[in-house]
Specification:
Length: 349
Amino acid sequence: MQTILITGGAGFIGSHLVRHFVQKYPDYKIVNLDALTYAGNLENLRDVEHSPNYVFEKGDITDTVGLKDIFEKHRPDGVIHLAAESHVDRSISNPMAFVETNVMGTVNLLNTLRNLWGNDFANKRFYHVSTDEVYGSLGEEGFFTEETRYDPRSPYSASKAASDHFVRAYFHTYGLPVVLSNCSNNYGPNHFPEKLIPLVIKNIKEEKPLPVYGDGKYTRDWLWVKDHAEAIDTIFHGGRVGETYNIGGNNEWKNIDLVEVLCDIMDELLGREPGSSRRLITFVKDRPGHDRRYAIDASKLKNELGWQPSIHAEEGFRETAKWYLENEEWLLRVSSGEYQQYYEQQYEG
Ligand code: NAD
Ligand code: DAU
């Protein structure tokens, strides 16, 4: 049996990844290590929480002693690292939290693994899940490749870039067997409603203003979250040690076009007059340092390992909207308490 420890497994992408591994690999033991911050929610994993090959450990990646205990208890052969502070707007108001978790936490994890594995790296692997935001911002043309120079512009992307550099440094300096991926924007069920797509779906449902930053022409490349989980599985098992793979949806949308499509899908699902939700669109103050366009060239992953995105965008957006309508309780619970305070500061302050 292989033991795989996934950090951040109670979050959005992490919970899809944990489910994917628990269900697809019954012979692996999957340990989910998560601090359960505002973004972590064990409810995301209700359907697999009693699986015999699944264990949850509450732990903070910045806690050296606690981390050592959990790693010595489970002695993982592989680690897939997703735990992070992940929201750009929060990084603008509180950068230190991003340095602590994304940079210090990642280095703490790397040290813990060096101590645990010693120099015996046979059949061991550390997989670092990163973002396309480390590459900065594109103009109208072009794509990010694995060779694109790092140029992070927000405290979030700077912290992720720093963590990527540390992971590569541990490969070159200590021989730690690492693999990395840099992915574009994910969407799908269980996405925390501070991010654009779930926030817009929630506000349409509640007939509240739909905040679009700046001129709305900022562009993102959207990937169905379950395709990301499949890509991570493919790279974890087949990716070459020391390499980086870009993952993307080949699915670019200007924010305003995306918000309009979500309005139309929701009008149809809610039986509202066609076009009525578009009236809620409200242009608001821009995000400082807002990256204009992200677009991923994922040909290395396709050519080397055969992975491609599986789902058509509008089908994915419709599935996502349906999930939020069918999971009102989930949405209500995650948007109480801390979320209200955040929302007021971000949009009504
Ligand atoms: P998320 O915010 O939904 O989840 C993060 C998880 O990490 C939560 O469960 C949280 O409790 C946990 N966590 C936070 N701090 C922790 C700590 N100190 N110790 C242990 N656990 C901690 O994030 P997400 O959107 O699922 O992103 C997961 C990873 O994927 C991140 O590393 C992010 O940078 C990367 N990524 C995200 C996207 C995206 O579109 N969401 C795209 C590319 C890469
Ligand atoms: O590209 C990958 C990244 O995608 C991940 O690394 C991050 O963890 C993830 O949060 C996401 O970052 P973005 O900043 O691109 O996602 P967000 O959903 O916050 O914003 C998407 C776009 O929508 C962006 O151009 C900002 C804009 N936006 C966002 C919000 C929350 C709005 O116009 N209004 C909003 O209210």
